[in-house]
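Reminder: ligand-aware prediction takes two inputs, not one.
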Amino acid sequence: MKFAFSEISLPKRGSLAVPVYAGNSFSPMAEEVNTLTGGVLARALETSRFKGNKGDILEILAPNGLDVSRVILFGMGENTEITQTDLEDLGGTLVSRLNKSGARNVTVILDGLGECEIKDSDAAARVAFGAKLASYQFTKYKSEEESASEPSLVRMTVACKTSSGARKIFQDLEAIAEGVFMTRDLVSEPANTLYPESFADRCKELTSLGVEVEILDEDKMRRLGMGALLGVGQGSIRESQMVVMRWNGASGKKSTRKPIAFVGKGVCFDTGGISLKPGPGMEEMKWDMGGAGTVTGLMKALAGRKAKVNVVGVIGLVENMPDGNAQRPGDIVTAMNGKTIEILNTDAEGRLVLADALWYTQDRFEPEIMIDLATLTGAIIISLGHENAGLFSNNDELAGQIFEAGEIVGEGVWRLPMSKAYAKQVKSPIADLQNIGTGGRGAGSIVAAEFLKEFVGETPWAHIDIAGMAWSKKDTPTVPKGGTGYGVRLLDRFVRDNYEGK
Ligand code: BES
Ligand code: ZN
Ligand code: ZN
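Here is what comes back for the chain with BES:
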C-alpha cells in the first residue's frame, strides 16, 4: 500500500473520508461536502447510531453532487482529547473498513483539529502510520488460487494544512513500521524454515542499512563457556547461534558513549525438550523466538530512521528438542559467568539461553542499560493476559522510562516486584542455581526474572516478559491477528525519548 500527503481539497475520484467531531459536529470539509450533496451527510447521521465519537464510522455510497464514489464519515470525539494512538487507530480502522468495501483509493481529510494538542502534520503522519501497520499480511504461504481476498486498497492520501511536514514525519514512522513488519514476519515464520542459522541469515540482511552483524557459532560459544545456552540446543540437529547486531548512529561527543543493549530470547521452537509439552497448542511455540524477533525488528527500525544512538542487539538462537542427545532433568551445566545450574525442567529453557546472552552482553559491551525481551513464562499470561507485558527491573528510573514509552505508544507494560525472598527460590541444594523455583506453582514469572538477575551484574537492567503479547488471536485497529511486532514501537520510543538529542 502506498501513502501520500496533500493540501486540503476535494478529490476528483476514489473515496473520501472526512471527520465529524463529538455531538456530530462536522469539520469544515465535511460541512462543505454536506452542502454539495444537498444535506445527505446530515440525513445519514440522523438515521444512524453515529455520534461523532472515536471509532464511529459511516459509509455513504455514490453520493449525488460529488465526483467521488463514496464518502466515509469518521468520528473524532472531542478535539481537545485526541491522542497519537487515536489517530493511528483511525488509520487502521479505515484500512480494514475500505478493504471490506472494495475501495482502491482513499483521501482522508484531517481538518477541524483546532484545539488538538497534536500538530496537524503530526496527526496526518500518524493516521498514515496506523494505516500502514494495519495493512500488514503474512501471505507468503498462500498459493494464488487461495488468496482471493487480496486487499483492495492500494493508496491512501492524507490531506492536512502542512503536508510537507507530514511527509517528513512519516519517513521515520515508515522505517519503524518496516521494523515492526520484520518482527511480524519472523514471528509468523514456521520452525521448519526459521531455525537458528536461517534466522541469523535474516539478521545479516540488516547490513544493507548499516548495521554490523556478527555471528557466533557453537564452537565460539563453547570457547566462551556458554554452557547454559548450549545445553538447551544440544538436542537439536540445528546448530545454535548467537547474533550480535550493532548500530552506531551517535555523532560527536555522544559517539564515544557506552551503547544501550537489547537482548532477546530466540527459541525457534520450544517442544519443552525431555520435559515435553502437551501436544495441543504446541504449534504456538514457533513464536518462542518473539523476543529475538523484537530485538531484530527494533534494530531495523533504529537503523532505518538513522537513530542518533549507539545500540547493540544480542539474540540467543536455539531449538529446544527432545532427542537422544538432549539435556535431561537433573543435568548440571555451567554458564559463562561460572555459575552452575541444575536443570530441573528442560522446558524452562528461555532463562538458560538468556543467562549466557545477558552475561556476554554486559561483559563485552559494558552497556549503559540492558533490556531483555522474552516469551519467558506462561504465568505472565495468567497475571496480565494479553493487555500488558510484564516488566521487571533492578532500576526504578529505567522501569519508569519504559512504562512512560508504553503509555505513549499504546504498548503497555506493568511492573511486577522482585525481592530476596523470590531470589531464594532459584538456589539449588547441589549447584549454585536451579532453573525452576522451589515454591510450587506461584509467582513463576517473578522467579524467572530473579534467575535472569543472576546474570546481569551491576548493569541497570529490565526484563520484559512478552509471552502474552508476541502473538494475537484477534485483530485490533493497527495489529492484525498473528505476530504482533509488540515491543518495536515501545523501545523505539524509549530510545528516542531517553537517548537521542541528549
Ligand atoms: N516458552 C515457554 C513460555 C510460554 C508459554 C510462552 C506459553 C508463550 C506461551 C517457556 O519456555 C516455558 O515453557 N515456560 C514454562 C516454565 C516452567 C517450566 C517453570 C511455563 O511457563 O510453563
Ligand atoms: Zn519452555
Ligand atoms: Zn520457551
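The mean pLDDT is 96. Residues 2-162 form a domain with the Leucine Aminopeptidase, subunit E; domain 1 fold (CATH 3.40.220.10). We will return to this case in the review session.
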